[in-house]
Amino acid sequence: MKVRTRSSAIIGTICLVASLALTTASADEPAAARQTAQVTLKQVATAKNPTAGAAGPGGKLWVAERAGTVRVLDDKGLGKPVLDISTETTTDGERGLLGIAFDRKYAHFYISFTNLEGTSTVDEFAVRKGKIQPHTRRTVLTQTQPYANHNGGDIKIGPDGFLYIALGDGGSGGDPHGNGQNLGTLLGKLLRIDPRGGKPYAIPADNPFVNTPGAKGEIWSYGLRNPWRFSFDAGTGDLLIGDVGQNDWEEIDWAPASSKGGENYGWGQMEGTHPFRGGTEPANHVPPVHEYDRSNFGCSVTGGYVYRGRAIPALRGQYVFSDYCDGTIRSLQMRNGKVTAVNDLGVNGGEIISFAQDRNGELYVFTIGGSLSRIDAA
After folding, report:
1. What is the pTM of this model?
2. How many CB atoms lie within 10 A of CB 215?
């Protein structure tokens, strides 16, 4: 999951966070964050190592638990598992059930997990009347993982209806196989596929590397270390990626909804805006819109969402995120792809492993210890 390659970062019951904020996006931005919204966290349920959430049928939030179960949140809390693949996945390293997503009509449900051999796997289920149909299960995509960390694993249906899949660089430390900059592998990439367009899937004809010799056509963007959580702005369609750093810098990457893909976010030549171990900045490097170092207890960025709910008007349009070690919930105000302010929202969620967004645009915070909390107006 969000692993740094240092043993001191292996915390809690889920050893996936060996590398599971504060400063500005660049040196010329204001150093002092200003608070623009008053918020609080309201705990709504307790899960077992929750890893991801997705808005599901009937407006309910579906929650993935690392060991392989999916449960649905309602007014009474989390119900019994509606899916259980716990006998098919392993939870060593950063592995487990790492991502879930629905298509736009809630007709298909996708899960992203590592199987018993540690292979990243994306499966699809048909959904009928709000219920998963187990007999329709099929495997869409697999990717062998050389190590147990940096699996990535997040999945989302984009505004275009295609399935986006985040994969880390393969693990270990320092990208030893050079996967981040290698277009011949799916590792260290954000992928874009059409899961219903072929068997097992189709590659969209307008993907950026479809006609590039030696490149994988599934690739949408590259140069990523461990894109643990990414999201699309429900208001604009913009893409934001929280990419976990190696030793010094955590970063948030951005691409506009108008992007044709192909962005190179720099890893493993760059860590944020800084050359990594003497690396040379690629000519096509797209620097992060925000980065921060570990001087204020941060260690692993937890990417979130642009808030589009109604409960907190002052927060609308801001990108909400946190850090696993620091736990402070922050937001970025942006204009034309530039960060104009970094805000401390004044609440600390603890060891935040993930965010989720419901159908109304309200945001939830998941911690490694199991708490599920909604971000409410204070």
Report:
1. 0.91
2. 17
* Residues ≥6 apart with Cβ < 8 Å to 245: 4, 19, 225, 251, 271, 272, 300, 301
The residue behind tokens 């690392």 is 66
Model pLDDT for residues 87-124, shown as the tens digit of each residue = 999 999 999 999 999 999 999 999 999 999 999 999 99
Structure token digits, residue 346: 């004044």
- Structure token digits, residue 26: 């660049």
- β-strands 77-78, 163-167 pairing: unpaired
Q: Is 363 helix (H, G, I), strand (E, B) or coil?
A: strand
**Residues 171-199 pLDDT 10s:** 999 999 999 999 999 999 999 999 999 99
Query: CA-CA distance, 312 to 71, in Å (whole number)?
Result: 27
Contact 232, 305 (CB under 8 A): no
Give 10-residue mean pLDDT values along the chain (378 residues). Answer: 38 37 34 67 97 96 98 94 97 95 97 97 98 98 95 97 98 96 98 98 98 98 98 98 96 98 98 97 98 91 98 97 96 96 96 97 97 98
Beta sheet of 352-357, edge-to-edge order: 39-46, 371-377, 363-367, 352-357
**Which long-range contacts link 259-262 to residues 24+ away (Cβ below 8 Å)?**
260/206, 260/208, 261/192, 261/207, 261/208, 261/219, 261/220, 261/221, 262/208, 262/209, 262/220, 262/221
Contact between residue 82 and residue 61 where contact means Cβ atoms under 8 Å apart: no
Q: Nearest 5 degrees, angle CA 283-CA 289-CA 291? A: 100
